[in-house]
Write a structure and sequence with these properties.
Elements lengths: L1 H24 L4 E2 L22 E2 L15 E3 L10 E3 L5 E2 L16 E14 L5 E6 L8 E4 L3 E8 L8 E3 L22 E8 L4 E6 L11 E7 L16 E9 L4 H9 L4 H6 L5 H6 L3 H9 L14 E4 L4 E4 L7 E8 L6 E5 L4 E6 L2 E8 L1 E4 L4 E7 L5 E9 L6 E5 L3 E3 L9 H11 L26 H4 L7 H4 L10 H4 L24 E11 L4 E4 L17 E8 L5 E5 L4 E3 L9 E2 L1 E4 L4 E7 L8 E3 L6
Parallel strand pairs: 3-6, 4-6, 5-16, 6-9, 8-13, 14-17, 16-24, 23-25, 26-28
Antiparallel strand pairs: 1-2, 6-7, 9-11, 10-12, 12-13, 14-15, 17-22, 18-21, 18-23, 19-20, 19-22, 23-24, 26-27, 28-33, 29-32, 29-34, 30-31, 30-33
Amino acid sequence: MKKLTFLIFVLSIYSFAEAKVLKQSQPVTYTCVMHPEIHATKPGNCPKCGMTLIKEKPKTSVKKNLPKQDKIQYPKKDVITKDTISYSGKVEKTEPIKSNVTAKSDPPRTVRYDLYVRDTIVNFSGKEKRAIAVNGQIPMPTLTFTEGDIAEIYVHNELNEETSMHWHGLFLPNKEDGVPNLTQMPIKPHTTHKYTFPIIQSGTHWYHSHSGLQEQIGMYGSFIMNKRNEDPTFRKGIDDLPTVPVILSEWTDLKPENVHRMLHNATDWFAIKKGTTQSYAEAIRSGHFKTKVTNEWKRMNAMDVSDVYYEKFLINGKYESQLSQFKGGDKVRLRISNGGASSYFWLTYAGGKITVVANDGNDVEPVEVDRLIVAVSETYDIIVTIPADKTSYELLATPEDRTKSTSIYIGGGIKQLVSPLPKLKYFEGMKMMNGMMKMNGDLDDMGMQMSYNQMDMNVVMYPEITGEEMKVSDKMDNMKMTESDYDSNKLSDIVTLNYAMLKSPTKTNLPKDAPVKELKFELSGNMNRYVWSLDNKVVSETDKILIKKGENVRITLYNGSMMRHPMHLHGHDFRVLNGQGDYAPLKNIIDIMPMETDTIEFNANVDGDWFFHCHILYHM
């Protein structure tokens, strides 16, 4: 018995010593709770989502014949450590996400994310301001799935106010759409709400709060759905490229509620901050005194391009980002979402042409352009090429008012900048407005047929298209403009993307035997009161558009206001009838320019109440 006891004691000592040696011999590694495939030898931040890496537990043994996992679970509450986020102007490095395709034999997975919504303090502009962070970061974490997965997303509301989460552009059951008081009750403070839905599509999308003005202060993030490799639409050379999610946004030091109030009060404060007041002194200096007087006589406002002044514009939450791992000859696919509350962004690239391969999560035939404008809430997939080694090429995102910009540099080495967009010629825009506005306040389209962003009314203000500002004579001031005067692609060698250039690689026809319901709406509004409506009715006056399930719905939209309106349909894609016939592109956002008429159609194939609205946050 004593021998047996002694033997057990010796074996215990030996096992303990062996385990200790094994533990000491293993290197210390760090991983990310959001992306467990990351393994780093040093502490730092996750290259994919920016969260602080945590120390991995040492492995003491290797188990064989592990069962296949059918569930992936992402972060738990106890790993959230950031309460304050401070942003500087320094360049942040971003790692690409390689195209993640799933093998045909892989079973469907349940992919779980836990999102913890909490108040935080940020410093984008030198002033500390309140914001909302999710999992300790702004923007919210990039959520990545593969078609066929089951999404299981737990939203833990740690705020002292209600919240919600909308999955922009996704096909899902109506109750999971995330519109408070329409498809669900708001998520109450200090409660948890579970969203679950199958991933039945692929593409670049994003997600955001649909409660109040929370989107403006941090509640937006990328939502990426990859194709399976047996997908018949899989495109070699496009879908297998390394990809980087890019989300554009803006930051204001004002409380969003104050911004909203100031817009309703027709304040000039934002124009003063931008330096775009268009005073009489400026009019005289530029030879537009008569233009200014006519503008005042017709009781019109000064020319305005975007309504809100922002302190900073951001790419992935930073003023500048860097993709230094790419070298000359590499191609990279950028999955770009406009998560801005009210800003349109021009995209230009220092390395040459931009190839557009998808829009609103749907494939399009590749089209090369020099630049494109991304409407509020739109997404585009673009491919750019790095022309040479040891050079970092700038992708520049410039807001429509051209007051500031934000950049991401692709490649390593000396920075190659792209020419900044010149300041707008506001008095040329004012003159154009004077010619189109009748004395009774109605607009005169002068017989022009405008559609699908092919004619841009603002082109008269673009110096790179129409030349530098010139003093005008009375004769020139009274000249009538024609359609060709607003087509930027006919006026210069700069190729600008418009909706007529988008074509689906596959047929998108609706069911032929379905009944057709035709609807027509005019987008209207009052700029002074900052009230926006459909057919002069706000949502409180008429909040239902009655449609029967199974109908093919064709909607014609005319924009009778002088503001662009990015109209978004929840839960569906629609065909844009842009002249491509059977291959009309599919979208869920259509940007309708002033005086433009666009037609869209879709099959109402899902039950429920689906929101249809302008996506400019302050228009809702």
